[in-house]
Design goal:
Elements (H helix, E strand, L loop, with lengths): L5 H18 L2 H53 L16 H11 L9 E7 L4 E13 L2 H14 L3 E11 L3 E13 L2
Antiparallel strand pairs: 1-2, 2-4, 3-4
C-alpha cells in the first residue's frame, strides 16, 4: 500500500466534501424558506386588509347610528307639541330677530332673511304664516338641529313645518327650513 501524499489527501478531502454537498442540496432548503416567507407575506396582507375593512365597517356603523339619532331628533321636532296649550298666538313683532339670535346662541351663522309664503287661512280668525329659510349651512348637523329646537323653545307657537337637510360633500350640511306659526288675524 502506498501512503497518501498531502496532495492526494487534499484531493480526497475535496472530493468527499463535494460529494457530501451533493447529498444535501441547499436549493430545497432555500425553496422551503422562500415558501414560508411568501406564505407569511400573504397572511400579513390578508390580516391588514381585514383590519382595514373592520375599521371601515365600524366607521360606517357609527355613521349610521349618528344618522339614526339625527333622524329621530328631526322626527321629534316635526311632532306637534303634546301639551294642552293653545295652538295659536297673537302676532309677535321682532320674531325674525329672535330667530337670528337663536342662531347666534347655538353657534350657527345668521341665516339670510326668510322668504314668506302667502298666509294660509285656517279659519275666520286664524291664519298659518309660513317662513322659509333657504341655504342654511353648518359644519355638522348638530348646530342646525339645536337651532331648530332653540327657535321652537324661544318663539311662542313657532313650529318646524318642514326640513330638508343634506350633506354637502366633506364640508358640512345645508338645510332648507320652513317654520310655521298659527296666528290670530286682526
Amino acid at each position: 500500500m502506498n501512503p497518501l501524499t498531502d496532495d492526494d489527501r487534499n484531493r480526497l478531502l475535496r472530493a468527499t466534501a463535494t460529494s457530501s454537498r451533493k447529498n444535501r442540496p441547499r436549493w430545497m432548503v432555500s425553496l422551503g424558506i422562500a415558501a414560508v416567507a411568501i406564505a407569511a407575506l400573504y397572511a400579513w396582507l390578508g390580516w391588514s386588509g381585514t383590519r382595514a375593512a373592520n375599521r371601515e365597517l365600524a366607521a360606517a356603523r357609527a355613521g349610521d347610528q349618528r344618522l339614526a339619532a339625527v333622524l329621530e331628533e328631526v322626527r321629534a321636532l316635526q311632532q306637534p307639541p303634546e301639551s294642552g296649550d293653545q295652538d295659536w298666538c297673537d302676532q309677535t313683532p321682532g320674531w325674525q330677530t329672535m330667530v337670528e339670535e337663536a342662531a347666534d346662541r347655538v353657534g350657527l351663522d345668521r341665516p339670510s332673511p326668510p322668504s314668506f309664503e302667502r298666509p294660509q287661512k285656517v279659519s275666520d280668525q286664524l291664519s298659518r304664516n309660513i317662513f322659509r329659510y333657504s341655504d342654511v349651512r353648518a359644519p355638522s348637523a348638530e348646530p342646525l338641529l339645536a337651532w331648530l329646537a332653540e327657535v321652537e323653545g324661544t318663539i311662542e307657537c313657532m313650529r318646524v313645518h318642514s326640513l330638508d337637510i343634506q350633506a354637502v360633500g366633506q364640508t358640512g350640511w345645508r338645510a332648507t327650513v320652513t317654520f310655521s306659526r298659527l296666528e290670530k288675524t286682526s
